[in-house]
Amino acid sequence: MSDLDVQQSGTPREASPPAASGGDASPLTEGQAPWSALLTPKRPHDDLPFDELARRYNFLQTSDRRAVFVRLIRRELEGRPGPTRVLDIGAGNGIGKNTALQAAIAQRCDELWGVEPDEGVVRNDGIFHRFQHALMETAALPENAFDVAYAYMVMEHVADPDAFLTAVRRVLKPGGVFLFMTPNKRHYFTICANLLRKIRLEEFTLGKLRRKEEVEAYHYPVVYAFNTPGQIDRAAKAAGMDAPGYAYLESDGPRPYMKGPLIPVFHLMKLKRSLIKDRGALLTLVGRISRPMTPQREEATP
Questions:
Q1: CB neighbours of 52 closer than 8 A, spacing ≥ 6?
Q2: CA 294 to centroid of chain Cα atoms
């Protein structure tokens, strides 16, 4: 159901040396770039800034959530003094398996770094300035170094939210931002998935709903310890971060999983979403957390 298990065991390797390309390396204009069509807004709320997205009821108002996420990251980089540095936490094989979207972020910053615990994932030298196989909690990264850090479909896998967010805070510059996208634990699909996980029927059910290769390619163990506002608020406070902000969106819901006798349920819940406009019950949670400009505790200088 998700794109990365960041709680896989392993020790960090030394960061790879800088790649030949950086934020300014692509000779293509934005209109020529392979990701330009992916980022073209297709629905009314696709290109809203975060604060506006957080205020709106974003049901059937956004298209590809990956593109929405990338637009938010690129917007965060606007106006920041250079050189700008961005960290992809759980880089995997792209944002939702799409490396062109990572390239769209690399194009907007001076350096894109990646952290990925799965040693089977190969670094993309055309995108990343530095890359290492490690958990965020144990990665060998410089302090006070990144303008933006982001995690796409990672939070639901994190077993120790305090350690994870403390590590994020350590590497962000004062005023830096952490953006993340995760399944909303309040959504009916996530509630059902969590229940199936607890009674150990998740793998069996997935095998009935998705093809074997889809399950192997996209599904990683989840713990759901870090994908509700309450959980995230507590970890942010413990890590010394500013209060998080949240936006919720849902394009077409969990349609790929709702097959056979579940199709009427899918359409019934879709109708309910149209009639009862509860922002906090939509499928995808998008979070934004800033590191305070004023240090709250003594830290080593970079």
A1: none
A2: 26
Give the position of tokens 């996209």.
218
Give the count of beta carbons closer than 10 Å to the beta carbon of residue 179.
21
Fold (CATH) for 50-290: Rossmann fold (3.40.50)
Tell me the torsion sign for CA atoms 210, 214, 218, 219: positive
**C-alpha to C-alpha distance for 12 and 122, rounded to whole angstroms:** 15
57 Cβ partners below 8 Å, 6+ apart?
Answer: 277, 279
278-298 pLDDT, tens digit each: 999 999 999 999 999 976 554
Tell the residue number behind the tokens 């939509």, with chain if given.
Answer: 282
How many CA atoms lie within 13 Å of 95's alpha carbon, on the beta-carbon side?
29
Answer whether residue 123 shows pLDDT above 90.
no
The neighbouring-strand residues paired with 136 are none
Over residues 140-163, the pLDDT tens digits come to: 999 999 999 999 999 998 999 999
Write down the mean pLDDT value for the chain: 81
Domain ranges of the chain: 50-290
Say what the pTM is: 0.81
Q: Among the listed ranges 25-39, 109-123, 204-218, 248-262, which one has the minimum average pLDDT value?
A: 204-218
Buried b (16+ CB within 10 A) or exposed e, 114-131: bbbbbeebebbeebbbbb
